[in-house]
Each structure stands twice: as structure tokens, then as C-alpha cells.
Amino acid sequence: MAHRSGSAAPPAVVLATLAVLAGAWVPRPATGQESPPVGPDTVVVSLRAAEAAALRNHPEVRQAAIDVAISKTRHDQAEHARFFPKLELRNVWGPITRARGEFSETGVLFSPDTANSLSDIRWFTQVELEALQPIHTFGRVDGLIDAAESGVQASQAGLAASTAEVRLQVRRLYWGVVLGEELVALGDDVLETLAEAEDILEQRDAEGSVSQNDLFRFEILSYQVHKRYREGVDRLELARAGLRAAMGLEPDVPIRPEAESLEVLEARLSGLGRYLDLAQANRPEVDRLEAGIAARASLARSKRAEQWPQLFLGAQLVWNVAPSRFDPENPFVYNPTNFFRPGVVVGFNWNANVFRTRDEARLAEHEQARLESGVQPLREKIRLEVREAFLEASRAAADLEESRRALRASENWFRAEQQTFDIGVGELSDLVDAFQANVEMRTDHLQNIFNYNAAVAKLSRAVGVDVHED
Q1: CA-CA distance, 35 to 257, in Å (whole number)?
Q2: Most exposed of 71, 160, 313, 373 (fewest Cβ within 10 Å)?
Q3: CA 296 to CA 290: how far, in whole Å?
Q4: CA 462/CA 164 separation, integer angstroms
């Protein structure tokens, strides 16, 4: 490129310093862009793979999954209380004094042993089996089962909410890593250009064709470009660390996204009303609250049922064996050992403390009412979140579309100024202005792609479904 004879610095130096003044890096072309080298231990992941790994290993998701397992076990426990009796088996072993039985010549039963003699201790064992099966509980068991079922639904909705939150986090981290790698790569290009410009400046300084002020300006700009580069590297490393943590990888595992450049999500935004309807139908927070209300209602119904007697069927089996004790085998003679007693009874169990039972039922009803009072505020909060996310996505879409047109305009302007400067009829200041505008638009457009993708992901979280797959 030709330049005028009075210029203080060649265009290469101007471009390098201007890149720093613009506060951004000049991006590489998307076509034919070389990827950074990948080591044998580097984990290369796609966005879907990163999401899948995070949903398997993220602590919030794992805790929510455990809550689901706990609620399902409680539901099984409530179901078993209806169909399976309460069983209790007891077996004891212990010492006992010997008691032999003999008949006298007159037919009188006596024992040569005494009841308090400790001279001849033997053993005995006794087995007791008790079973208690509810017959009719006036809805108490049914209420507990329904409450447990609603608890399962609430925990599943909580898992869905945690999953959606982690998915949004992973998407922002993943695209942040892609953006960071692009910016750092562009920073490498600027540093390389800056080094070439420094060599030219040193050569011109030796020739005496560059002013002292130009050297001072270049020194300041060199500091700024290195400072921005270090900040970009640190931000990239933080994004990588966050992505590794979300995926459950070790802190020292090298990671790199499969995407080599930011790509705009294919999403055609609909009207705000449609997204408001989608959010009311798909947000797991609403399902979780409604399931909690249903659980409280079932518990209140179960508490009210406790005011009535609980009918039950009971069975008992007791078997005692004491080989050292005489068994007269006479039902009219009391014998605490060597017996077998089965029995079946029907009865009822009633908690006569009706006031306490009534208060517990009222407490459950009040808790239900408290949850119900939170439905409307939650729906309003969701509407506000959807509205905010929709406005952000709409603004990001408009910024992206306008920056695309402005980027083309800046490229055409910069190209035109280069051509006029090459033939010697253009002003250096005009070339500098065109270059600065092009650098700013390239950087803004890259940032707008990230902002748009992040806004679409946020809108998807707000409505409960992926809007770019809708």
C-alpha cells in the first residue's frame, strides 16, 4: 500500500495502533479459519454433549433427582400401608428355673423343684408374631397416598426446573468459551501485527523519520493492547473453568468447544402473547406449586379422617418352648410356658383427643391456603420474566440485524478508502476513520451474536420450551 511521503508512520503501524484504540480485535475470516491445536487429552465437546454431561453431573440436578427418588419411595411406603399389614416378629431367649411335674400315689400333681431355686437354671424361648391390617380408615390412608403422589409430581417439577436452569447456564458458558477463543485468536493477530509495527518503528527511528511523540504514543498503545489481551485470556479461562465445573470434569482437564465460531441460532420470534401462554403451560415452577397445593389438600383430608375410629383386623401368634418345664396339657391349669396361642380379632382404634386432631387438620388447611395465595404472584412473576426475556431477545435480534448491515457498510467503506489511498488521492485520516469503524462493527457484530443466542436461551428458560426448536 502506498502512503504519502510526510506520514509519521506506515499504514501497518496505523492499523495496529488503531485496533487498540477501537478497544477490540480484528476478527479472522470465518472461511478457512484454522482451529487451535488439540492435544491428546483435550476434551472436545459439542453444545449438546456439554448439556448432557452437565445434566448427569451437576450438583443441583443430582440433588433434585435424589429428591424425586425420595418422594417415590414415600409414595411406595404409603401404598404399602394400604395393602400390606403391619408385621412385627419377636423372638426372645432366656434363663428359667426347672419345674418338673410328678404325680403322687394318690394322683396329686407336684414338683420336686421350687419356683425360686437357682440351683438348676435352664432355658426357654418364645416367638411372637403380630399383624395389624387397616380395614377402613375413613380416607386417612387414601389422603396419605394422594399426598405422596402429589409429592412425586412436585419433586419431578423441581427436577425439571433445575434441569432448565443448568441448561441455560451451560449454554451461556459454552458460547462464552467460543466467543473467548475467537477474541483471543484475534488478539494473537493484533499482537503479531503490533510486533511487526514495532520493528518498523525502530527502523524508522534509526532513520530519524519518526517523531518522539509517535514513539510515546506507540508505547502507550502497546501497553493497552497487552492489557486487553491478558484480560481476554483470563475471561476465557474463567469460562472454561465454569464449563468444566458444570460438566463435572476435573479442574485440570483441557477442554475445547466443537464449534469454531459463533453461529446465530435459527429462531423466528413470535408474538409476546404466545410466549406468555407457553410459559403458563410449561413452566415447571407452576406445576411444582400446584402439586404442593394438592399435597397439602390431601394431608388436610387425611388429618380430618383421624377424627373417626380406624377399623382394623389384628392377628397374633405366640409360641413358647421350655423343655425343662412340665406341661400338664390342661387348659384349666395356668402354665406360662410350653404353649401355642393363635388369635384373630377385629377392632377399632380411635384418637379421643378430637381437639388436637381438629387443630392439626386446620393447620394443614391453612398451609394449603398459604400455598394457594402464592399462585397468582408466581404467575405474575413468570409473566414479568417472559416479558423481560422477550424484550431482550427482540432487542438483540434488532441489534444483530442492524449490525449485519452496518458491518457490510463498514467493510465497503474501508475497502473504498484503501483503494483511494493506494492511488494517492485519499487522506490518511479518512483511512483511519474507516478502519476504526470496521473494527468496531466487526467486534460489535460478534458480541451481538453472543447476546442474541444468550437472549434466545433466556427466553427459552422463561417460557419452558426451546423457542429456536419451536
Answers
A1: 11
A2: 373
A3: 10
A4: 9
- Amino acid, res. 213: N
Crossing angle of helices 375-422 and 284-305, rounded to 10°: 170
- For the record, the C-alpha cell of 51 comes out as 448439556
Q: Identity (one letter) of the amino acid at 181?
A: E
Q: Is the pTM of this model over 0.85?
A: no
- Cβ neighbours of residue 178 closer than 8 Å, sequence gap 6 or more: 257, 259, 260, 261, 262
8 A C-beta contact, residue 18 and residue 130: no
Q: How many CB atoms lie within 10 A of CB 231?
A: 12
Residues forming a β-bridge with 325: 99
Sequence-ordered strand ranges (E) for 266-323: 310-321
Are the C-beta atoms of 147 and 295 separated by less than 8 Å?
Answer: yes
Which residues lie closer than 8 Å to 360 by C-beta, 6 or more apart? 303, 306
Is the CB of residue 417 less than 8 Å from the CB of residue 426?
yes
Q: Comparing C-alpha atoms, which of 263, 259, 275, 277 is closest to residue 467?
A: 275
Q: Which distant-in-sequence residues (6+ apart) come within 8 Å of 247 by Cβ? A: 45, 50, 53, 54, 57, 170, 255
Integer-rounded Cα Rg, in Å, for the chain is 41
